[in-house]
Structure formats: structure tokens, C-alpha cells
Specification:
This protein is of the alpha+beta class. It is built from five helices and five strands. The protein has a three-stranded antiparallel β-sheet. A two-stranded antiparallel sheet has the order 4-5. Helix 3 packs across helix 5. The longest helix has 13 residues. It is globular and about 50 Å long. The protein starts with a helix and ends in a 9-residue tail after the last helix.
């Protein structure tokens, strides 16, 4: 039996609020992280398979409320590549991309 609820997860995106400081600069935005099955996570996090940069490039698919100097910055590969030039930012985003896969919201 194939559960229809699980089919809906194929296109699911996790909205993860981020707020961190790196080098004295504050970053605050809502990351849009692609939800993937455990088999994909295992491939991405295998000891010989990938880097933090690859994890972010594959799982971070957008953001909201990213502001720079008072100007809203839309998500783009160019802006993401610029951010991934800094190891601390890359590590933080990679960690969130993986942690978000396991975050479950309780409903009453």
C-alpha cells in the first residue's frame, strides 16, 4: 500500500527561521529547505560523499525576509554562491539543512 500522505512529501519544503551572527554580522531570514527521504540524507552525509557546500546547494531552495542594507534580497544561485564563500556561513546553513529534516511540528 502506498500512503498518499507520503506522496505529498515529495514536493515539501521546510521553512526554517534562522538568526545567527558571523564575524560580527547578523543574519536573519527564513530558509526554505527541501525535504528529502532518509536515503538521500545518508548519501549527502556519508563520510566520503560530500561537503557542507554540496549539502546546502542541494537542499536550500529559497528564502524569505533576507534583508541587506535595508533592501530585500531574493534568493538566487549567485547570492548563495557568494555566501558559501565563507566557511562559517556554509557550515551553519548545512547544519540547518540536515537538522530541519528531523524537525517535526506537533499539532494539538
Amino acid at each position: 500500500m502506498k500512503l498518499k500522505k507520503l506522496e505529498q512529501l515529495k514536493d515539501a519544503t521546510i521553512h526554517a527561521p534562522l538568526h545567527f551572527e558571523y564575524g560580527g554580522v547578523e543574519f536573519k531570514f527564513t530558509a526554505h529547505i527541501k525535504l528529502v527521504p532518509d536515503t538521500d540524507i545518508e548519501k549527502l552525509t556519508g563520510p566520503h560523499s560530500t561537503t557542507d557546500k554540496t549539502i546546502v546547494e542541494q537542499l536550500l531552495v529559497g528564502w524569505d525576509d533576507f534583508v541587506d542594507e535595508g533592501k530585500s534580497i531574493p534568493f538566487s544561485k549567485d547570492v548563495l554562491d557568494e555566501m558559501l564563500g565563507f566557511g562559517g556561513i556554509t557550515g551553519r546553513l548545512s547544519t540547518e539543512c540536515i537538522n530541519a529534516q528531523y524537525r517535526v511540528q506537533e499539532k494539538n
